[in-house]
Amino acid sequence: MSDTHASTGASPESLRFQEERGKVGMWLFICTEVLLFGGLFLLYSVYRYKHHVDFHAASSDLSRFAGTLNTIVLITSSLTAALAVHALGEGAVDRAKLFLRVTILFGLTFLVVKSFEWGAKFEHGLYPNAPVLLGMPKGQILFFGLYFSMTGLHAVHVIVGMSIFGWVLGHLGSTVTPSKPVVLENATLFWHLVDVIWIFLFPLFYLIS
C-alpha cells in the first residue's frame, strides 16, 4: 500500500469510488444550475417577445465594450483553468499554481469591470425601484430588473468559483495532487459553466438587434 493510501486509510478502490462520486455530484449540481438559469432565460425570452422595442432601447444604455471585454476575460480564464488541470496531470504543481493564480486574477478583473458598469447604472438611476427607471416604459423596467438579477446571480457564481480556486490553490501539492485531481477538475468544470452562462448573457443583454 502506498503512503497516500496508508495516510488516508483507504484502499485504491475506495478512493476511486469517492472520486467518481465527486464527479457525479458535480454533474448533478451543474444540472440544477442549468435548470435555474434556463428558467431565467425563458422568462427573459417571454418579456423580450412582449416588449421588444423597449428591450432594444434599454440595451443601448449598456456598454458593449465592457460586455465584450468581460467576455474575453472569462473565455481566457477558462483556458487558464484548463491549463492548470493539464499541468497538474503532468505533475507540474508549480505551473498549475501559476495558472490558477492567473485564473483568479481574470475572475477579479471580470468583477471590477462589472462593478464599474453597475456603478454607471446607479449614477444614471437605472436600477430596480429607482425613480428614474420607474418613469420609463414597462419593458425597460423589466429589462433592467432582469439585467441586475441575472448578471448579479452570475457574479455570485464568479465569486464562488474564485473562492473554490483559492482553496484549491492553498492545497495544491498536499490535498490536491496529480493522483487526486478531482477537486481541481470539478472546480474547473464549475468555472466552465460560469463562462458558458455569461456567453448566453452577453448577447441577450448587450447585442439586442
Please explain how this structure is put together:
The protein is an all-alpha fold. The protein has a single domain, classed as Cytochrome c oxidase, subunit III, four-helix bundle (Four Helix Bundle (Hemerythrin (Met), subunit A)), CATH 1.20.120.80. Helices cover 83% and strands 0% of the residues. The protein contains eight helices and no strands. It has helices spanning 3-8, 12-50, 52-59, 64-89, 93-123, 131-134, 138-171, 182-206. The longest helix is centred in the N-terminal third of the chain and has 39 residues, at 12-50. The N and C termini lie far apart (63 Å). Mean pLDDT is 91; it is low at 1-8.
Task: Describe the secondary-structure layout.
Elements: H1 3-8, H2 12-50, H3 52-59, H4 64-89, H5 93-123, H6 131-134, H7 138-171, H8 182-206
Helix pairs in contact: 2-3, 2-7, 2-8, 3-7, 4-5, 4-8, 5-7, 7-8
Helix fraction bin:
over 70%
Mean pLDDT: 91
Query: Which CATH class applies here?
Result: Mainly Alpha
Please name the CATH architecture.
Up-down Bundle
Strand percentage lies at under 5%
Low-pLDDT runs of 5+ residues are 1-8
Summarize the structure.
The chain has eight helices and no strands. The chain has helices spanning 3-8, 12-50, 52-59, 64-89, 93-123, 131-134, 138-171, 182-206.
Question: Notable features of this structure?
Answer:
8 helices, 0% strand, Four Helix Bundle (Hemerythrin (Met), subunit A), single chain, disordered N terminus
